[in-house]
Amino acid sequence: MYGWGVDDGSDELQVCTSDCQAGISGDAAGQFSLAGDIAVDSDGNIFVTEFGNNRVSSFASNGDFRFAFGWGVRTGAEQFEICTEDTGCRAGIYGDGAGQFAYPDSVAVDPQGRIYVNERNNPRIQRFAPDGSYLGVLDVGGHGGISIAPNGDVYYPEPDFDRVIKLNGSLEFVLTFGWGVLDGAEEYQVCQAASIHDCRPGIRGGGPGQFRRPSDIAVDAQGRAFTSELEESRIQLFRPVPVTSILAGPDGRTGDATPTFELGSDEAGSTFECRIVPAAFGPCSDGDQHTTAPLTDGTYTFEARATYQGATDPTPATRTFTVDTTSPALTVDEPPAGALLLGAPGSPARPASRRATRTR
Question: Topology of domain 244-323, per CATH?
Fold first, then answer.
């Protein structure tokens, strides 16, 4: 273990392997005050939230102190700072500024080494570079745990709203899941929308897929999410829900009576089903592409949905298009060689241009 005085009680950062003792609480470099959550990056570096010091501290895998970040941690100034053992460290200043903390709660590290921190008293997630530099903030968040999927997606529970949020690696909202999050129905639902504000709070309870103050989450290498709850004494397992997209294909009017659509999913390895509404879904004609059967002239709605590890996208991707094979074609008549176009009296003659006509 490591911490101040853990080996012999001295007022310094120590590493202890046997006969260890409690650490000495404080705000110096490498010292802890109400240490909270821990995350480890791919190089073995460790990040610890400090509830009592309103900062995040980082250590090497051997226990050496690397740095801490938060407001005023180096000089006490009302600004974001990074401190090291050489500069000396102090407790961070409580608040809601950029890079500031109001009781940092959970921490996670993504595949690029970026650090994500949420706070007990600020509804947001802040992101920092591997060296602790401030990167940005998402002003939606809870004070539950944070977990990063192997593809960089960010998951976190909202204990006060009884649902789990999924963001992509750019901190853009992807979906939320829980009971009633789509339309308020008394059932498990997934809401995919432009914003979390377009989805509903979850309905609190103990049903399958329902939450009663979800508190923490972990995502494994397969993208499966494991959640805990403060009031239900259980762990629930959720398979990743793929998000389907139509990457190519007609959007509007087309003269092709057998159009082809190209499909995508945010979960690699997804399979796809397709249909022309109101027909039933069936396998797409060629994996992640689908060419329709011959269509007569008219307006159609094409839908596709991805399935990954048994979980199917509940909100299919949709494209509306019109097949029109009878619209007049545009042809160009070439003028006779050497023909001149006469303008107004007194204006010079100029070569005749080509003439466009429409034929059926």
Answer: Immunoglobulin-like (2.60.40)
